[in-house]
Task: structure prediction
Amino acid sequence: MTPPRPILTPEPDFSEQARQAHYQGTIVLLIVVDKTGGVRNVRVLKPLGLGLELKAIETVAKWRFKPAEKDGQTVDTELAVQVDFHLF
Result:
Protein backbone atom coordinates (compact mmCIF):
# COMPACT_ATOMS: atom_id res chain seq x y z
CA MET A 1 0.00 0.00 0.00
CA THR A 2 1.26 3.48 -0.83
CA PRO A 3 0.17 6.30 1.50
CA PRO A 4 -1.51 9.49 0.29
CA ARG A 5 0.87 12.31 -0.68
CA PRO A 6 0.02 16.00 -0.30
CA ILE A 7 -0.29 18.00 -3.51
CA LEU A 8 -1.89 21.23 -2.26
CA THR A 9 -1.68 22.33 1.40
CA PRO A 10 -2.47 26.03 1.81
CA GLU A 11 -1.62 27.65 5.14
CA PRO A 12 -4.46 28.43 7.55
CA ASP A 13 -5.52 31.91 8.60
CA PHE A 14 -5.47 32.92 12.26
CA SER A 15 -8.69 33.70 14.04
CA GLU A 16 -8.83 37.36 15.11
CA GLN A 17 -9.04 36.28 18.75
CA ALA A 18 -5.86 34.16 18.48
CA ARG A 19 -4.01 36.90 16.58
CA GLN A 20 -4.80 39.51 19.23
CA ALA A 21 -3.68 37.13 21.99
CA HIS A 22 -0.48 36.19 20.06
CA TYR A 23 -1.60 32.58 20.55
CA GLN A 24 0.36 29.88 18.72
CA GLY A 25 0.53 26.10 18.57
CA THR A 26 -0.38 22.97 16.65
CA ILE A 27 -3.73 21.29 16.09
CA VAL A 28 -3.94 17.61 15.17
CA LEU A 29 -6.80 16.53 12.91
CA LEU A 30 -7.90 13.08 11.81
CA ILE A 31 -9.02 13.10 8.19
CA VAL A 32 -10.04 10.69 5.46
CA VAL A 33 -8.31 11.16 2.13
CA ASP A 34 -10.78 9.74 -0.35
CA LYS A 35 -10.17 7.94 -3.64
CA THR A 36 -10.15 11.25 -5.54
CA GLY A 37 -7.57 12.88 -3.24
CA GLY A 38 -10.13 15.05 -1.48
CA VAL A 39 -10.51 15.43 2.28
CA ARG A 40 -13.59 14.42 4.25
CA ASN A 41 -14.64 13.35 7.76
CA VAL A 42 -12.39 15.88 9.52
CA ARG A 43 -12.21 15.42 13.30
CA VAL A 44 -10.17 17.29 15.90
CA LEU A 45 -7.78 15.06 17.89
CA LYS A 46 -5.79 17.79 19.64
CA PRO A 47 -7.54 21.17 19.95
CA LEU A 48 -5.86 24.52 20.54
CA GLY A 49 -8.72 26.92 21.24
CA LEU A 50 -9.50 30.55 20.37
CA GLY A 51 -11.30 29.57 17.18
CA LEU A 52 -8.26 27.95 15.58
CA GLU A 53 -9.92 24.53 15.22
CA LEU A 54 -12.50 26.00 12.83
CA LYS A 55 -9.76 27.74 10.82
CA ALA A 56 -7.80 24.46 10.65
CA ILE A 57 -10.85 22.48 9.53
CA GLU A 58 -11.74 25.07 6.86
CA THR A 59 -8.18 25.00 5.50
CA VAL A 60 -7.66 21.23 5.55
CA ALA A 61 -10.95 20.77 3.68
CA LYS A 62 -9.20 22.57 0.77
CA TRP A 63 -6.13 20.33 0.84
CA ARG A 64 -5.62 17.90 -2.03
CA PHE A 65 -3.66 14.65 -2.10
CA LYS A 66 -2.48 11.99 -4.50
CA PRO A 67 -4.67 9.22 -3.04
CA ALA A 68 -3.37 6.08 -1.41
CA GLU A 69 -3.15 2.96 -3.53
CA LYS A 70 -3.53 -0.68 -2.66
CA ASP A 71 -3.01 -3.37 -5.28
CA GLY A 72 -3.06 -0.71 -8.01
CA GLN A 73 -6.41 0.75 -6.94
CA THR A 74 -6.99 4.07 -5.17
CA VAL A 75 -8.47 3.67 -1.68
CA ASP A 76 -9.83 5.86 1.09
CA THR A 77 -7.30 6.30 3.89
CA GLU A 78 -7.51 7.72 7.39
CA LEU A 79 -4.66 10.05 8.23
CA ALA A 80 -3.63 12.26 11.16
CA VAL A 81 -2.35 15.69 10.09
CA GLN A 82 -0.86 18.60 12.00
CA VAL A 83 -1.87 22.18 11.33
CA ASP A 84 0.62 24.71 12.68
CA PHE A 85 -0.32 28.21 13.77
CA HIS A 86 2.77 30.37 14.27
CA LEU A 87 3.15 34.13 14.16
CA PHE A 88 6.33 35.40 12.53
